[in-house]
Amino acid sequence: MLPAIESATREIRCLDGMWRFAVDWDNTGIDDRLYADSLPGNREVAVPGSVNDLFADEDIRNHVGHWFYQRDVRVPRGWDGERIILRFGSATHHAVVFVDDVEVGRNKGGYMPFEFDITDRVAPGGTFRLTVAVDNRLDNTCIPPGEVRELPDGRRQQNYLHDFYNYSGLHRSVLLYSRPARHVTDVTITTDYTGTTGHVTWEVAQSEEGPVRIAVVDKQTGEVVARAGGTRGTVDIEDVTLWTPGVGGLYDLVVALLDDADGPVDIFTQHFGVRTVRVDGYRFLINDTPFYFTGFGMHEDHETIGKAHSNAHMVQDAELLSWIGANSMRTSHYPYSEEFMDYCDRHGIVVIDETPAVGLNWMMAGGILDSGGGETYEEGHVDDDTQATHKEEIRRLVARDKNRPSVVIWSIANEPDTTSPKSVDYFRPLVELTRECDPTRPVGFVNVMFAPYDVCRITGMFDVIMLNRYYGWYVDSGDLETSERKFAEELKGWTEKYRLPIIITEYGADTVAGLHSIYDQPFTEDYQVAYLKMNSKVFDECEAVVGEQMWNFADFQTKYGFARVDGNKKGAFTRDRRPKAAARYLRERWTSMEAARYGRRDHRAR
Ligand code: BDP
């Protein structure tokens, strides 16, 4: 899906702010036509924002089902004759949208943008009542999957198999925008270069056939560097500025749909960067230069706003990444906001872009995450319905992010069960689909500790190996000597069996900020540093390791559990972004590491 942009032919009205709010306690609100009038009660909610931490009411926080959001919207007078589109950055996890008394559409899945053409329902210069029923329920037809349990006392409980809190709400901006009847519906840009000449291949789709012209503009200088006509083709950029990790470097592809007299009907601008990504033996190459990933798996997670996007928090997180010497991150465990991805494109932050496929693992979760155990790939757990949604999530993620230079790997799942023979049939079509949607980027998935190289059945289908390993934390807890030996042995096994680049996408230890000990005691800041040092040593000694992304950038909220004290505490930073001792250690390592020089952002000079 294309981003919403402003141009000479497109305008945007942002609908963020305070909305009316009601909890649909019995989940009968749609049948009862709650949307047909002003919502009952006088509660209000912030958009964007998660609902859960806003109200001083535990029943609201724990509600399983619908929240109703509502506001009145004025349509700009000047939009007469234009198509009028209502666009949501995301609604977690599902939404039903009403304009006045009429349902205009539904969306399934919590982390993707969606939009509806509401031209026929509204009048420029007039107002309408916009109501959204947001649903926080997860079941086996969802990615991520979950299950709603009915307790003997009648309460409903949402169970899920992932380790982050099930925040819900309108997490990203809601926009009303205008576009012409004949408009650009898709743009696909792929790039390459020879010597100092960049090659840009473009393809434009439009709602009705007609003449198309494109121009390539250097975003830095504003200069037009190439022009061409047609819905597809390749143009060259002389003296090209490559998109470079740690630096950025963007161009705009300006697409003009023209009428027969050459007048502009629709203007759409898509940014892109000229760069290549390739795997060569153990090496991960960006612009034919070996790239070593430093950084984190992160979460969209902050106090009060939960999983909502906020520009201020985004800038702070990105600045801390730069300060600590991180050149990359993984959007664990779902696609992040378009604003965040745009920022990464602009600033040269390298991204492993992940689908929301987390928790596809009943075996592991049996013990740790309260699934009750059992076979993963069976009816009602991860089945054909789950797979169909998983495919849709892949299609939508690639459609949204395919033009982003920052994205260098598609991660199609986090820690699925890959020990079951059925995992092969589940994953093969997904890998094929991802390659079909985007033949230009390596495809990977993130492997769980319980599926080492001699057990995992699906690694051979992928281009890179991504491992989450907790030696010294979940296994051999507190014993760093044994951990070092076992971890090194395992990496040797992966290296010899697959001869592919390995990125360690998680390694970490829960740490309570301020807790210290002269002994290597788990949960202390001292242990976290000792643990990281041990891991660093193991990485440095393995030639196939091309990256380390520590778990996690910051402490984050989870559901309750005996191993979680007010959330997951594996952050290098606390939830309010104060550095633990680990942050200082990582900074020292990453800012001086020779292997990670390409792509390092010079924090001071920027
Ligand atoms: C891994 C998961 C991650 C968890 C982490 C942990 O990928 O979501 O938060 O472990 O336990 O299994 O801290």
From TrEMBL:
UniProt enzyme class: hydrolase
Please name one Pfam family that this protein belongs to: Glyco_hydro_2_C
Q: Which UniProt keywords apply?
A: Glycosidase, Hydrolase
Q: Which GO terms describe its biological process?
A: carbohydrate metabolic process; glucuronoside catabolic process
Q: Which residues form the Glycoside hydrolase family 2 catalytic domain?
A: 277-594
Using the record's annotation, list all stretches that form the Glycosyl hydrolases family 2 sugar binding domain: 12-180
Signal peptide annotation: none
Tell me which residues make up the Glycoside hydrolase family 2 immunoglobulin-like beta-sandwich domain: 183-275
UniProt-listed InterPro entries: Beta-gal/glucu_dom_sf, Galactose-bd-like_sf, GH, Glyco_hydro_2, Glyco_hydro_2_AS, Glyco_hydro_2_cat, Glyco_hydro_2_CS, Glyco_hydro_2_N
Give GO MF terms, alphabetically.
beta-glucuronidase activity; carbohydrate binding
Look up the EC number in the record and give it.
3.2.1.31
NCBIfam families xref list: PRK10150.1
Family of this protein: Belongs to the glycosyl hydrolase 2 family.
Looking up PANTHER family in the UniProt record yields: BETA-GLUCURONIDASE
Listed name of the protein = Beta-glucuronidase
Q: Which organism is it from?
A: Corynebacterium comes
Organism lineage: Bacteria, Bacillati, Actinomycetota, Actinomycetes, Mycobacteriales
